[in-house]
Amino acid sequence: MGIARGRPGGTRLDGVGHRFDIAAPNPAFWTGVYEDETESGAAVIDTSRLMVSVSGVRGRVGEGLTPEVIATFAAAFGAYVKQRGPGRTVVLGRDSRVSGPMFHRAAAAALQSVGCDVVDVGIAPTPTVQLAVEDLGAAGGLAVTASHNPIEWNALKFIGPTGMFLDGDEAAAMRAFLESEIPRATWDELGGVTTDEGAVERHLQRIFSIPFIDLDRIRARRFHVALDCVRGAGGSIFPRLLDELGCRVDAINMEMDGRFPREPEPVAENLGELEELVRRTGADIGLATDPDVDRLSLVSGAGRAIGEDYTLALAAQLVLRHRPGAVVTNLSTSRLLDDVAEQAGAVLVRAPVGEINVARRMQSEGATVGGEGNGGVILPDVHLTRDAPVAAALILQLLAETGQSLQELADGIGRYEIVKEKVARPSQPLDAVYDALAARFPEAEADRQDGLRLDWRAEKKWAHLRPSGTEPIVRVICEAQTRAEAAELVETLRAALPR
Questions:
Q1: Catalytic residue positions?
Q2: Mean pLDDT of the 448-453 span
Q3: Range of the domain at 422
Q4: Is the predicted pLDDT of residue 28 greater than 50, yes or no?
Q5: Is the dihedral of CA 425, 329, 410, 399 positive or negative?
Q6: pLDDT for 241-276, tens place per residue?
Q7: Does 422 share its domain with 372?
Q8: pTM here?
């Protein structure tokens, strides 16, 4: 993607008033995809190869996502937070992706160009960046990370002054700056850049200060941990975390160079190397995270990935042993969490899919713990964002308290099977489709917060249908006590969908 400002060709004046001609380039060159400006000066960005959401913008490097795109969004974000305040400081951090340094520099320059002072935390977990915003009283933060997306992707995530991602209203207000001329600072109002080398240490101290984390008790167990940080930002925090918790560690993929040796999403099918490491070393537990360190997956001492849904369920079990209160998760999370909450006498509240939706609901409910079934644990004692190091500390505390193995703890909760499918988007409006499905299955409890969720509580099965934001499809997620039952539910819903 190039940049085209003004009209190609024409006559210009140089710095001392001499006229010179600029030849118009090949017309074919100007028919591509560009960031241009409207007559009002507003940036115009082709988003057909980008994924723009409430929390940020992402794309494939060199295709939809370029330094120009990053700079434009970063400048708009900087102008937005500078207007909103408090102050004009923006925290900037990144994961380890190969394209990270390039986009990091583009974002920093763009922020300076609108008068924001940049606090650079370098390579750091996204939750560390978010916590730094809160700690420093910054106006906002930017994380250059595509989280669990494949190696060819990168992204920019927008963080508000609370350290939480922007919500829908905030994101709309920020994007308004893309639709008008972004106000740039004059030479004497440009922002500066400072570094913050203490962000990870502050993050760790917050974890060690969690009231029900008993450091001495964990240390006494001398847990043997196998660790896989997928060559992401986890290398900046996990070694220190586990060392402070007295763990013996065998680790793989700790180089923070972004050259992921496996698919970066820490789902069970991607963790074969960690499973082998656990078996070979005799580790008590295996821990795997994603490149920006907000999700954690677990491998049992037998060398088997138990599934990312257990991370939140087990973390919640630990928290509820110490503190009553509501638990919040999204509509697509396994009912393992329902069982944990019910056993503890806690209320489970479900929110629309998306971390910010869960975090906002946790605020309104005064929840004691929450998160998402993808391995993302949110503990308000630290901050309202998914945090893999927090999840690891909670799991190790549970192991220390109970004296049970990870597999024994997982077996004690139970097991469900989830089947995920895509179906063609019906020609009818989706609201009408949801009405028809809810009427077709009156025995199921219907939730319309985010698509349609049907819950057959007595039969311990549910289905969630929601439209894709990028494809003309509807995603169908079904969970039941057996895979055959979950697959059957998918087919039942597929057959019931209006044509």
A1: 147
A2: 94
A3: 417-496
A4: no
A5: positive
A6: 999 999 999 999 999 999 999 999 999 999 999 999
A7: no
A8: 0.89
